[in-house]
Amino acid sequence: MPPDPRPFVPDDPAFATRVPESFARQGAMATIGARLVAVAPGYCAIDLVPTPALAQQHGYVHAGVVAMIVDSAGGYAGFTLFPATASVLSVEFKLNLLAPAQGDRIVAEGFVVKSGRTLTITRGEVHAESAGRRTLVALMQQTLIAMHGKPDAPAA
Amino acid sequence: MPPDPRPFVPDDPAFATRVPESFARQGAMATIGARLVAVAPGYCAIDLVPTPALAQQHGYVHAGVVAMIVDSAGGYAGFTLFPATASVLSVEFKLNLLAPAQGDRIVAEGFVVKSGRTLTITRGEVHAESAGRRTLVALMQQTLIAMHGKPDAPAA
Amino acid sequence: MPPDPRPFVPDDPAFATRVPESFARQGAMATIGARLVAVAPGYCAIDLVPTPALAQQHGYVHAGVVAMIVDSAGGYAGFTLFPATASVLSVEFKLNLLAPAQGDRIVAEGFVVKSGRTLTITRGEVHAESAGRRTLVALMQQTLIAMHGKPDAPAA
Amino acid sequence: MPPDPRPFVPDDPAFATRVPESFARQGAMATIGARLVAVAPGYCAIDLVPTPALAQQHGYVHAGVVAMIVDSAGGYAGFTLFPATASVLSVEFKLNLLAPAQGDRIVAEGFVVKSGRTLTITRGEVHAESAGRRTLVALMQQTLIAMHGKPDAPAA
Questions:
Q1: Under a CB-based contact definition with an 8 Å cutoff, are residues B66 and B95 in contact?
Q2: pLDDT (tens digit per residue) in D39-79
Q3: Is any Cβ of chain A less than 8 angstroms from the Cβ of B44?
Q4: How far is the C-alpha of A74 from the C-alpha of A79, rounded, in Å?
Q5: pLDDT, tens digit (0-9, with 9 covering 90-100), for C38-74
Q6: Which residues of C touch B94 (CB under 8 A)?
C-alpha cells in the first residue's frame, strides 16, 4: 500500500516509465519471479510468490531473496526522484529479519526518507501475506548514490 | 582463502557434513548457481559465476544476489560451531557495496567474530575474481541466532 | 510526540518508574545533559540541548552523541515491555545521519517494531528543533536482547 | 596497534597535523576524556578511560560512548587520505556490541577499507584492555563522505 501523500516532486515526469524499463533489465528479478507492483514518487513495491526455488534450509524464503526485493524496492523508490540522466546504485543497506518469510505472497516496499543530489536514504518493509493476514518479516535502512551523467538505459 | 588458524573448536565434529547437507536444502542457492566451496570451523565460502540471470540493470551481479551468498556464508560459518541440535537464523546483516560485482567468479566468505550460546557475530567479504585479479566488492557485518532444540535437518 | 496507539501491553505495569530509575543510573546521560522526556509502552524520547561540549569539529552535535541518545531511546522503548526481572542490552544498531544536528534542541525517539522474549527490534528517529521547525537528522535501526534473571536495578 | 603496512598514500602529507587539529576542535571528545593515540595513512586510534561519568545503567561504558570513539576513529582514518581542501562527515555506521566495555582502557581503531573520491568505507574495532588482556567489545562498519571545497579548519 502506497504511503500517505508525500511532498516528493519527481525531477523527471517520465519516472513512471523509467522504473519499469529498468526493472525489466534486472535479470535477477525475473530469476526469482519478482514483479514490480507499484511505483509512485519516492515509493516502490515489489512482490514475489514463495516457491521451493527461493527457499533456505527450513523452507522459508531465503533472507537474501528478501534482501533482493527490498534492496530493489528501496533503489527504485529513490530512482523515481532522480533526473533522467542519472542512474542509481546501492551504497549499503541493513536488514533486520523479524519473522519467517512464508505465505501466499511476499511484498517489499521502499520509501524515500531523504533525497539528496548525491545520496538518498530510504527505509524498507517486507510483509508476508497469508489468507489476508499481513506479517512484517523484515525491516531495511538503505543508502543510495545517484550516478549523474550515467543514464540507466543503455545507449541505443 | 581460509583465515589464519583460529581458536574455534566445533561443538559437533560432524559440522563438515552438516553444512553441505543444509546447503543442499537451500533451493535458493541452486537457483542462483551458488556452490559451497569451503567449510572450516568458524569459516565458510560460497561462490557463483555471473550470468545475465543474476544481473541488475547495468549487467553487474545484483546487490541482493551478493547479499544471498554472503548471508549464507556468514550463517554457515556460525553454524559450524553450533551443537548438532541447533539450527541457525540470520537476525540481521549490513552490507556495504564497494565495487561492481562482475568477473569470472564472485566469492563470498564468512568469518565468525564471536560465537555465543544464543548470538553469533560474523563478518563477511565478497570478492570478484577476473583474470587472476581479486577485487573486494562487498563487506558485511551479521548477527545470527542459534535455535536450540530445532535441528537443521528435517525429521526423517 | 508519542506514536499512534500501539498494541503494546507492558508485562510489568511499573515500567513507568523502572525506566526513569534506570536512566538516572546512566552517568553518561548526565554527562551530555540528556533528559528523559517521554515514556510509553514501546516508546521512549530523550533530548538534549546542543553545546560546544557536545560538538564535532564543525560545531554540530557529534554523530556519536546523537547515537548515545537514540541508542538509549530505543533501548528504553524496548525495556518498557520487559518483565521486571530482565534488563536490556543493545546487540547492535545502525544509524544514518541525514542532516547536521544543530538547533535549540535535539530529540531522539525510539519505537518498538517487534518485541520478542529474547530479541526486540526498534527503530529510532532523531530530530533537531529550531525556532519551531523540526528536521530529521538521523534514522536508526536497532536490535536489543533481554537479559532474563538480571534485573536492571542493583541489589539493595 | 597500527595495521600491517597498507598501500594508502595520503593526498596531503600534512594529514598528520590536520587530524590532531581537527580532533582538538571536537568538544565532544574532551567531554568524554577521549585521546587521539595514533594516526597513520588510512588508520586512526582513539582511547578513553572508563569512569562513572561514561557509564550506562550497569556501570559499563555506554554503547553510545563506544560509538563516539569508533565513529571518530573511522572518520579520521578516512580523513588522513582526503585532500587538504575537504572535510569529512559520517554518512552512516553500524555497530555490533560484543562484550561489556569495561577495564583499564577502551581503545577504538578505524581502518580504511576503500577510499574513493566521494565515499570512503571503513571498519572499526573497539577493544577493552584490562591487566594486559585485550577483549573485542565492538565491531563497526561505516560510510564517510568527503565534503570537497569545505576545509575542516575554520577560516582564520
A1: yes
A2: 999 999 999 999 999 999 999 999 999 999 999 999 999 99
A3: no
A4: 9
A5: 999 999 999 999 999 999 999 999 999 999 999 999 9
A6: 94
According to DSSP, residue C48 is labeled: E
Which chains are within 8 Å of A by 3+ CB pairs?
B, C, D
Nearest to C121 among A113, A123, A139 (CB): A139
Instruction: Choose the closest CB to D27 out of C54, C67, C68.
Output: C54
Q: What is the DSSP string of chain A?
A: ---S------SSTTHHHHHHHHHHH-HHHHHTT-EEEEEETTEEEEEE---GGGB-TTSSBPHHHHHHHHHHHHHHHHHTTS-TTEEEEEEEEEEEE-S---SSEEEEEEEEEEE-SSEEEEEEEEEEEETTEEEEEEEEEEEEEEEET--SSPP-
* pTM to 2 decimal places: 0.95
Chain A residues in contact with B62 by the CB 8 A cut-off are 26, 28-29, 68, 71-72
Distances, alpha carbon D92 to alpha carbons A151, B135, C68, C100, D127, in Å = 26, 23, 14, 13, 21
Q: Which three cell numbers stand for residue D9?
A: 598514500
Asked if B64 lies within 8 A of A72 by C-beta distance, the reply is: yes
Can you read off the three cell numbers belonging to residue B58? 547495468
Among C146, C65, C113, smallest CA distance to A127 is for C113
For chain C, the chains sharing at least 3 beta-carbon pairs closer than 8 angstroms are: A, B, D
Would you say residue B2 has pLDDT above 50? Answer: no
**How many other β-carbons are positioned within 10 Å of the β-carbon of residue D7?**
6
C-alpha span between D93 and D99 (Å, rounded): 19
Chain D residue numbers with beta carbons less than 8 Å from the beta carbon of B139 are: 113, 121, 123, 141
- Whether chain B has a CB inside 8 Å of the CB on D141: the answer is yes
ipTM, interface predicted TM-score of the complex: 0.93
**Which residues of chain A neighbour C98 with C-beta distances below 8 Å?**
113-114, 121
Q: How many CB atoms lie within 10 A of CB B56?
A: 28
Partners of D114 on chain B (C-beta within 8 Å) are: 98-99, 136
The pLDDT tens digits of the residues spanning A97-136 come to: 999 999 999 999 999 999 999 999 999 999 999 998 999 9
Contact D142, D93 (CB under 8 A): yes
